[in-house]
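User: Before I run my own analysis I want an independent prediction to cross-check against. Here's the chain; please return only the C-alpha cells and, at the end, one sentence I can use as a sanity check.
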Amino acid sequence: MAICAVAIAGFTLSGCSKKGEDDPFISLRSRDSRLKGEYDLTGVSIKTDTKNTSGTTTTESTTESSYSGGVETTTKTNVKTPTTRKYNMSLMIDKDGTITLTWEDFNTKGESNGVKTIQGNWVWESTAKHKSGITLAIPGDPSGLGLTNTWNVQELKNKEVIFTRDSYSKNVTTNSTGESTGNTTLTFTSK
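Assistant: C-alpha cells:
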C-alpha cells in the first residue's frame, strides 16, 4: 500500500516539475495558470555587441541598457554620457491567447505623452507539456524592446515572469560588413 502511494505521488508530481531554467522545482499550478495575470515591467537588461568592417577598418562597440524605477539607462562605448528615457509598461496576459500592452512614456520634462493600450496575441512555442518558449505578437508595439518576437520563458513563478531572447544579425554589402549579437532580459512582476 505504501509503495502504491509513493508511486502515485511520484507520477502526479512528475507533471509539476520545472520547465523554465529558473522555475520553481514543483508547482501545483500549470504554466498557463501561472502566466495568466497582469504584470508591470520591473526590469530590463539589454546588451548588444556590434562589429562593423569597411575595407581594412574595423570598429567594435557595446551598448547596454537597464531599467529600474521606470527609467531606462543606456550606455555605449566611446560615448561619455548615458541616455535615459522614462516609461511604464504593463501586460495583461489571458489564458485565451490575448495579451494587452499598456504603455506610457514621458517627455524630458517628466510630462506624460499619453497612455496607449494595444491588443495582441500570444502562443506557446510548443503545444507539448514542455512550454518553455512563447511568441508574442503586439502590432505597433511602441516600447522599442522587440516584444513581437519569440521569447524563452526563463522563470515563471506565481508573482514573476522573466523572458529572455538572444539575437544575431549580419548585413553584408559590397563595401562593408556589419554584425550584431545581443541578449535581452525582461522581468515582469504581478500587480
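Sanity check: Residues 2-14 form the longest helix (13 residues).
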